[in-house]
Amino acid sequence: MSVDTDVQPDRRNRAPLILLVVAVVLGLALGVYWLVERAALEDRRAEVADRGADVMPFALEDTTHVFRPTEEGGVQSVVADDPDDDEQIALIREHLRDESERFARGDFSDPASIHGEQMPGLQTLSEGAGAIDITYVDQPGGGEVTYVTDDPELVDALHDWFDAQLSDHGHDAVHG
């Protein structure tokens, strides 16, 4: 009895193995990509926090930024995480009051120094500030700046600006 040593495996049986190998390789590549992107985002957030400490007098880690887009613009709030932290609350209020006055004049240099000159929406807001009604009010635990405009381009710029801040501030910011 002879044994045939030239038996070729059925090519159809290789297809599932090839698909499995391709799926594993793609999964690994996506995993590496996600890790690299995540690390870059965390690096960006650390840079923003460092620059923010030079501009914002309150402690970013002891406060929460809240961004609530509206049909006519949006509302930006900052509140102390501890409602009894009178020092943080006073610093928040002073900062937001000053910033709202600067923003009304088209001076967005503080957010630019924190988030970068190319921050989404920033240039449009600087150029169109005269068409935005910007008001500050004290709120329990902090303060709030409201932006109202009837210009759709400025509304979009405000929403882009809010989204960029939400991304850059990470867990220190929430969508309202």
Terminal CA distance:
81 Å
Shape: elongated
- Structural class category: alpha+beta
Strand order of the largest sheet: 3-4-2-1-5
Order of helices and strands: HEEHHHEEHE
* Poorly predicted segments: none
What value does the Rg take, in angstroms? 25 Å
Question: Explain this structure to me?
Answer:
The protein has 176 residues and is α+β, with helices and mostly antiparallel strands. It has a domain at 53-175. Helix content is 55%, strand content 19%. The chain is built from 5 helices and 5 strands. It has helices spanning 11-55, 86-104, 109-115, 122-128, 152-169, and strands at 63-70, 73-80, 133-139, 142-148, 173-175. Strands 3-4-2-1-5 form a 5-stranded mixed sheet, with helices on one face. Helix 1 (11-55) crosses helix 3 (109-115) and helix 4 packs across helix 5 (152-169). The chain is elongated. The termini are far apart.
Which descriptors apply to this entry?
176 residues; alpha+beta; 5 helices; 5 strands; 55% helix
